[in-house]
UniProtKB/TrEMBL annotation:
Residues 215-252 are annotated as: Disordered. This is Cytoplasmic protein. It comes from the Bacteria.
């Protein structure tokens, strides 16, 4: 499916050069109607140069005329045969040269924290080959001693939504095969949104719950405590007059 280039700049051009309603422009460029109104008022997209969709082969003039004559007409993007099937392109993901040196670190992170992912899934996420993944899995990579695991999302090699989708797919496949997952594996197979909604686990094991109320003093010892007030200790003699003692044994 073809997508509109420079939607905000296109909206600026349509506001400045046509009488199409804000609602029609908003639906065409994928923005909110209030944003289009803000562009017309000069509050939004200040300094953005308009992008002519007709001159750039994204819209035909007949569509603009039809939209100006009918407020219910929806602008349709011009069909571009070259863009047909673009999103269904298969093959390895292209990785910029500046980020290719980060791929081993991301592969090690995926292998360590998501072992359920197949080599094919890892290859699509970070744009690498299966021999490289296998070498890192088996720790036979030439630089394995210097590789530190780093999240591929943090490195910009893939999106969080793509990683979550791959993890969920791996979880469904493992469940269909009847595999038994441990608690640690089950925690790894949830998406970021699900993990953020999960309740935090207690920091102390449940087996020692209640130790915060534990006391070394026995209940019977509470009766033997001296309950006299501060007023009873008027002098030193009364202070050393301990309860339960014999008068002969008290210091004089």
């Amino acid at each position: 499916m073809a997508k509109l280039l420079h939607p905000k700049a296109t909206a600026v051009w349509l506001v400045d050069n046509t009488t199409i309603s804000f609602k029609q422009i908003a639906d065409f460029v994928g923005m909110h109607e209030l944003e289009i109104q803000g562009i017309a008022d000069g509050d939004v997209a200040t300094g953005v140069k308009g992008f002519d969709p007709v001159a750039n082969n994204q819209l035909v003039q007949e569509e603009i005329i039809s939209a100006e004559n009918s407020p219910l007409h929806k602008l349709r993007l011009k069909f571009n045969a070259a863009a047909s099937g673009e999103e269904k392109r298969r093959g390895p993901r292209y990785t910029p040269l500046s980020k290719r040196q980060d791929r081993p670190a991301s592969i090690l992170w995926l292998v360590k924290f998501h072992p359920e992912l197949s080599d094919g899934q890892i290859g699509k996420l970070v744009g690498t080959t299966k021999p490289t993944i296998q070498a890192i899995r088996e720790r036979t990579h030439w630089n394995i001693a210097n590789i530190q695991p780093i999240d591929p999302v943090a490195l910009g090699l893939c999106k969080q939504s793509e990683l979550d989708a791959a993890v969920q797919k791996a979880a469904a496949k493992k469940a269909a095969e009847g595999g038994i997952m441990s608690d640690d594996e089950r925690r790894k197979l949830v998406s970021t949104e699900q993990s953020l909604e999960m309740e935090a686990e207690p920091k102390f094991p449940s087996a020692i719950e209640g130790l915060e109320t534990f006391s070394l003093a026995d209940d019977d010892d509470e009766d033997d405590l001296d309950t006299r007030s501060d007023d009873a200790f008027a002098d030193a003699d009364s202070f050393f007059n301990l309860p339960g003692g014999d008068e002969d044994e008290q210091p004089r």
